[in-house]
Amino acid sequence: MSQLSIRNISKRFGATAILRDISLDVEAGSILTLLGPSGCGKTTLLRIIAGLETPDSGYIAAGERVFVDSDRSLLLPPQQRRLGFVFQDYGLWPHLSVADNIAFPLKMAKTPKAQIKIRVAEVLEAVRLADHAAKLPEKLSGGQKQRVSIARALAAKPALILFDEPLSNLDANLREELGQEIRQLARQFGQTCVNVTHDRREAQLLSDRIVLMKDGLCHQIGRPEELFRAPVDAWAARFLDAGNILPAQVVPGATPGATQILIPRSAVQLADGSKEVAGVTAQVLSSLYIDDRYEVVAEVAGHALKLFADRPLQPGQHVGLQFADAALLHFS
Amino acid sequence: MPAATLTAGAAWQGRSLRPLLLALATLLMLTLIGLPMLAILLYALFPQINEWSLAAPFSALLPNLMDAQLIGATLNSLSLSLGVTLLSCILALPLAFRRAQMSTRQGRLWDALLLVPFLIPPYIGALSWMQLLQVNGFSEQLLGFNLAGFLYSFPGIVTVMALHLFPMIYFATSKAFAVIGNRYGDVARVFGGSPLQIFARIHLPMVLPTLLSSGLIVFVLTIEEFGTPEILGSRFGFRVIVTAIHEKFSDWPIDLPGASVLSLILILLAFFAYRLHQRLARRFSSAVENQSLAAPARPVSTAQRLIDLLLFGSAVTLAVLLPLLTIGVSALLDTLSGGLSLDNMSLRHLGGLFVRDGAAWAAISTSLTLALLAALGSVAIAILVAFTVVRLRTRGTALLDFLSILPNAIPGMAVAVGLILTWNQPFWPATPYNTPAILLVAYICLTLPYPIRMLTAALKQLPRSLDDAAYISGAGELRVILRILTPLLAPVALAAGFIVFAIASRELVSSLMLAPPGVETVATYVFHQFDQGSINAGMAMSLVTILVSGSIIVLGQRLPGSRQPEGKTQ
Amino acid sequence: MKQFVAALAVGLVLATPTFAAEPLVVYSAGPASLSSALAKAFEAKTGTPVEMFESTAGKIMARYQAEKSNPHADVMISASWGHALTLDEAGELLPYTSPNAAQVPAALKSDRYVAQGAAALSIAYNPKSGLPAPQHWADLTHPSYKGQVTMPDPAKSGSALTLVQGLVAQDSANAWTLFSQLAANDLLVPGANKAALNPVLQGAKGVVFGAVDYIIIGAKAKGESIEVVYPSEGTVLAPRPVMILKSSRHAETAKQFVDFLLSDQGQQLVAEEYILPARTDVPAKRPGWNELAIIDFDAKQAAEQATATKAKFASVIAK
Known about the structure:
The complex is a heterotrimer.
Chain A: E1 2-13, E2 16-27, E3 31-35, H1 42-50, E4 57-62, E5 65-69, E6 74-75, E7 84-86, H2 98-108, H3 113-126, H4 142-155, E8 161-164, H5 172-189, E9 193-197, H6 200-206, E10 209-214, E11 217-222, H7 224-229, H8 234-240, E12 244-247, E13 260-263, E14 268-270, E15 280-290, E16 293-300, E17 303-309, E18 318-323, E19 329-331
Parallel strand pairs in A: 3-9, 3-10, 7-8, 8-9
Antiparallel strand pairs in A: 1-2, 1-4, 4-5, 5-6, 10-11, 12-13, 13-19, 14-18, 15-16, 15-18, 16-17
Helix pairs in contact in A: 2-3, 2-4, 3-4
Chain B: H1 8-11, H2 17-45, H3 61-65, H4 69-100, H5 104-119, H6 122-133, H7 138-143, H8 148-151, H9 154-180, H10 183-190, H11 195-224, H12 227-231, H13 241-249, H14 256-284, H15 302-332, H16 348-352, H17 359-392, H18 397-403, H19 406-409, H20 412-423, H21 437-447, H22 449-461, H23 464-472, H24 477-504, H25 509-514, H26 522-531, H27 535-557
Chain C: H1 2-14, E1 24-29, H2 32-46, E2 50-55, H3 57-66, E3 75-77, H4 81-89, E4 113-125, E5 149-150, H5 158-170, H6 172-184, H7 193-202, E6 207-212, H8 213-221, E7 227-229, E8 237-244, H9 251-261, H10 264-272, E9 276-277, H11 299-304, H12 306-318
Parallel strand pairs in C: 1-2, 1-3, 5-6
Antiparallel strand pairs in C: 3-8, 4-6, 4-7, 4-8, 4-9
């Protein structure tokens, strides 16, 4: 069952079309990520879902509740949509304590006081901040602030929580940790979420499905592995950093008509020299030990190529490379 | 594409409060400021509009604009305003910069002291400088020198006015410096910037928008001010537009249409200053990142402490202590001609305030009540207007923004005439005219520019996500304003409220014209004392009022709302 | 609108004199203590309350002008005779001759307005200044007074204008020579009456040319070091006109009030302020009608030339 339906949403700012006739569905209890470069319209779409921006036309509904319907000139203000929102800059009210920040949406929903207390304790527990209830937001670290923001979004049990680049203000380790935590919380509460990011790592961390957006259009939709394994074109492959992209003429055995070839990093192997297979010769530019293997950058006919190796290579060294044909993608 | 699109009208149907708030803000601004301004404009064009006649249209324009002295007066007004604005910036900037580095306690003390100039009516201030520095003035009687030559000169008048007005810039920019915090300076220090370079290259450009907008206020205030140019400027034949306007209001013959025509020139000057300010502000505006607000305060070295003490000490001495002492000593002198001598000391004038049927205390309580209400009213309206201008950004908000500086640009006399023309009409079902409420309307009209400027600037610094988070949490516009923005703006609102309170508690010119029969305010009381040649009695009243309003402000600063940690709100 | 409602509420709270009868509205320039004493005495005598708006002559006129579409004032007492002339010319004054005006000199009354009292223009000097005591207007052109003399600006002070008009009417050539010689003697023309007087009281200057005498006499009575001199060659009066406005809705009460102003009691209150009572038969507490040499001149004709006179004065002084 789809929790959020978006139909034919369009938005222009002056002469520029920001969103062109976007239609999307988000499954109940899943996390959908709007991924794309800046200016692709993803944030505008998120703010339109929240009611912070007004679309020129289209239809949005969460379950039975219609948010926007331009045919009926219907537009629900954000305060009546009963959503959660996690802001990039946290959006915590500095004059209210952590508990008061979280209680705010409950108060607005006229929840009885006793229940507010219980629910605040519950979500604080869930984001592991039970000890910080009385503090002012300025006393917290960035990660803690964002967890308060998440707790606030969860508090009133909204139909949908919207995330606007929730991890981008945090450092790398924290990002991973909080990403996992958000997924876990979403699963725990059966929470439907829409997430916006320009960062593919953040998208991978947080998504059940990803919508790759470009120039106000949905460019490609799919599960993360679908997107990263099978980007629809060279632009998507490049944006997702799905692998090496080489012109067809430098790759032996390329399909006729293809102009560019996507070669996943894992599809590149060092030729062991004994076998006579179609391959290319490359010169090593760098070789770094990362995680539990070597990440090697090599140059093939003037193009950089990234691969994984199980042994170190010397910069300047010439090596033969071969590609696992089945993994290659040909773009015309 | 579906056939139907969400038109502008339909787009807001859900958020029904927004058009309402915009309408309310516009209505308030048009009623309080727009109508009296329109009345002045009409009076300039139709000299008999006061009798509801459109006869002899435009007949007042040419004769008044052809006045040969007008060009000189306009140039004088401009150069005076520029001079005062520049000097005020120069005086305010170092203080504001250092203030942002100070501890809260210490800063509060200086802040309180630098509010005092707002409490001193300009004409009292100018008179006290005269009494202090003129030939045979206090300085000559005590120390054997006078500065009459300096006082009655262009630099002298610029100095006196700047000493009175620079706190306006000080308060605005010290808040801006606090928002920026130390972090950008720290970055520059890492890259090898010297303190002076950092100030000039990093901090100054960042506070420039604030500097410009508070500078604009000082500029239009100077253009409008009557007391000082009249008292000091007339000693060396320095005529400005406002003195020319007042001549039309003075003894004989009264020429209200002529005064309105000249007021139009001031409105035009204010308009150009406003546009210039807008252009400059757009060019120099820079967004301060909101994320890393917590800028660690650096410990202040003893040497720096001494420098601060010297800096603030001398500013406070010049702008506060000297005028206050002069007023205080004058209040204690039995006769004006007796001069500074022990046997001329007397409590007669101070004591006199407690007799005469308690008229003095009635005046003080009238003024304080009105000032308090004016402060509450102005700040409430300003929060609404700031929200409308900054957050709604629909068409028409630029008009609100411009309207909000007009009352500063026009002499209080002209505003008073505009208010009479507006409110003394039989067609109003109810009118504040001829009740003390008209004074409240006048004070709110005259003081609205301060809270509007200050709160608009402060609101621009508040991240929008704070509002958005509240909307999404289910709060409507009114709740966002009352529960989120108002508490966050409280310190600035309080500071603005103090300024309004201080100015309204001593406003003279419109009070003299608008006070209903039988009602006296502090300022009219002082004026009537002066009128009977009793300068010292007037000084006594001024002193008492400054002390009373001052203590109210000091008490107000202890309100819980102002106790929030610095920088947190912005 | 909350503010507005609050404002109205304050209005009601602060302005709660309870009105038994319809009050008479009087706009009055000049000594506040005189105005309130008159209002009280009139109310005590007739039971009709008086709403007294006190301000400067300029401001009561400005308020009256601005209120024209919905007038409030019944009676005006100005400090400037010119106001009466202007309003009379415009036909805005209600004709009334008080029976009590019989003892007012003809020059100080007409069918439509009458003087309440008058100030005389004088030389005021500070004996502490060490200057010789001046006797005549022309004395102040003497080098010993160089840089010590102030004079109210005729453009800002009605009484100073009257003095200029009077001296010019008496002997035009002589008067303009006098002013140009004063200018050459560094005469200071700093603004209205107070601006000319204060530096003399404070010792920065020594003498006022054209001081309003009752203020000087009052200041002296309070212990100020100041003396008033009436030049024997003549001075002018600055009468305070009382006018009933045609727009008055309480004409009968207004007439009663004018009668009261010119009654013995009303005139004595005037005398208390060291102002010369308009009625010659009421004793003054200061040099009276028979002790002053008054220049007789046509005020109406002078008023017509006022703008030119002020301009000429300004140009003579500027030299």
